[in-house]
Design goal:
Helix content: 40-55%
Number of domains: 1
Number of strands: 8
CATH class: Alpha Beta
Shape: globular
Radius of gyration: 16 Å
Amino acid sequence: MINGMEIVDFHCHIGAWPQYGMFDDVDDMLRAMDATGVDQACVFDVFHGDHRRGNDEVARVTRAHPDRFIGFAFVTPHYPEEITDELNRAFDSLGMRAIKIYPPYFDRPVTDPAWASVFEFANHRRLTVISHTWGGDTKCDPMLFVTLAAQYPQVRWVMGHAGGPPTGRESAKRAALAHPSIFLEICSSFRNPGAIEDLIAAVGADRVVFGSDMPLFDPAIHVGRILLCNATQEEKRNMLGGNARSLLS
């Protein structure tokens, strides 16, 4: 918490990814959270081919630190016959609160039928789905989610990275303007000056969500982007934690 504002990080990973120097060190994540005032972090597995193993890893962390970490379920579209059972297990037995998907890493566009059972599950339970998005990527450009938002109206859709580079950010803004259930999360989006203000001006601070991509990035970077942006205290409060709480309700 900073200046009386709760901070909920909506985009963090559990697991190791040596390609980017990301190692599985929960204690290091907790130290970073304490240093930057992050009250809770939403965590999901990083790219396991075995979704059961990945969700078990997330549950291990959330059970060890239930006051600090919130678990998001992860599934792979390569085993569509397992998806519904695994999501039922993740939510009913492991206590997951939302779903994270990675279309480009599994080489399946978000519009591929292999994802349908994920979205049907989320729609039935009125869940939030956060996806990796990147402008121009045929598997996860933000505009691909507009049709899904209409097809699954009970799902809240969070565009991870807000589409990434400035061109992707334009796509993310168009998507959010096209459907009210689409939200924009800021981690790893290009940090050119005025980017946060640009998102607020386009879609309103009530649909901009703080995330850091920890442990790939220090959360201080993105906390600072919001604390120092040209926005009201109430807008900053919503972006740092209020919107996340609404998405998890």
